[in-house]
């Protein structure tokens, strides 16, 4: 049986952003059926509902063996898993976030739009990959916050920024460590 994977870019991105084409091709050589859509333009966290609606309208599956999201793509995955009709075996969030704020304060309630109990019911395995120098607050604090509430593994890289950024001229065309975690 073919494994199914979904790859989601971040805000301002596309299916051709950074390491996504490389990861798609790499997973396909491993026998995965990979869906990597280009989502509608969104500028802010509150626009994620547009992405949720687009995914619901166009997804080939409601269960994926693997879902990988970069930046807001990771937030999108958590929004999808907050629904009753989406599930996955493993999600990997790269430079993801759930609390968009310059001055992040972490309280005891999970952010609005995310259903922690349903997310955990809909996915048993979580990996959060973050860098110690992310320029957009998609940092280790975000990863630790998600790991604390959802469980899973937090991987902290040194000096890897946002794992791809046009603004900061960080091309990040391949990501072998990510591929190895996808294949676990």
How would you portray this structure in words?
By secondary structure, this protein is of the alpha/beta class. It is globular, with a radius of gyration of 15 Å. It has one domain: 3-Layer(aba) Sandwich (Rossmann fold). α3 (72-81) links the parallel β3 and β4 (87-94). Helix content is 30%, strand content 21%. A 6-stranded parallel beta sheet has the order 2-1-3-4-5-6, sandwiched between helices. It has helices at residues 20-29, 48-58, 72-81, 116-122, 140-150, 176-182; strands at 3-8, 32-35, 63-70, 87-94, 125-131, 153-157. α2 (48-58) crosses α3 (72-81) and α3 packs across α4. Mean pLDDT is 91; it is low at 102-109.
Give the helix tally.
Answer: 6
How far apart are the first and last residues' alpha carbons, in Å?
Answer: 17 Å
**Structural domains: how many:** 1
SS elements, strand count:
6
| Helix/sheet category | alpha/beta
The main sheet comes to: 6 strands, parallel
- Any idea of the CATH class? Alpha Beta
CATH third-level topology: Rossmann fold
Secondary-structure arrangement, i.e. CATH architecture: 3-Layer(aba) Sandwich
One letter per element, helices H and strands E, the order comes to: EHEHEHEHEHEH
Which strand order spans the largest sheet, edge to edge or round the barrel?
Answer: 2-1-3-4-5-6
What's the pLDDT, averaged over the residues? 91
Percent helix, as a range, is 25-40%
Q: Whole-number radius of gyration?
A: 15 Å
Name the CATH superfamily assignment. Answer: Alpha/Beta hydrolase fold, catalytic domain
- Low-pLDDT runs of 5+ residues are 102-109
Tell me the β content: 15-25%
Shape: globular
